[in-house]
Design brief:
The chain is built from three helices and no strands. It is mainly α. The protein has a single domain (2-72), classed as Aspartate Aminotransferase, domain 1, CATH 3.90.1150.
Length: 73
């Protein structure tokens, strides 16, 4: 979907591909891969869409249409 949205000039981002418990800053807690499976799975699936106060209704509709198009292909 990310590639599809980018082809429609809709920016996306993956902010947390590595869950917090696996990041270096939290290594002292001693968690390892598999300790929080849902967090790890979400890091592979969650895609952030454009959202900001200046996003026009037309831009919102464009994002919605591109997502719908992705699922209809």
């Amino acid at each position: 979907m990310r590639e599809h949205l980018q082809s429609h000039e809709i920016p996306t981002e993956i902010y947390y591909p590595k869950p917090l418990h696996l990041q270096k800053a939290f290594a002292y807690l001693g968690h390892k891969p598999g300790d929080f499976r849902e967090s790890e799975a979400a890091g592979l699936r969650v895609l952030s869409l454009p959202i900001f106060p200046e996003l026009t209704e037309e831009q919102q509709r464009s994002v919605i249409a591109a997502i719908a198009d992705f699922y209809l292909e």
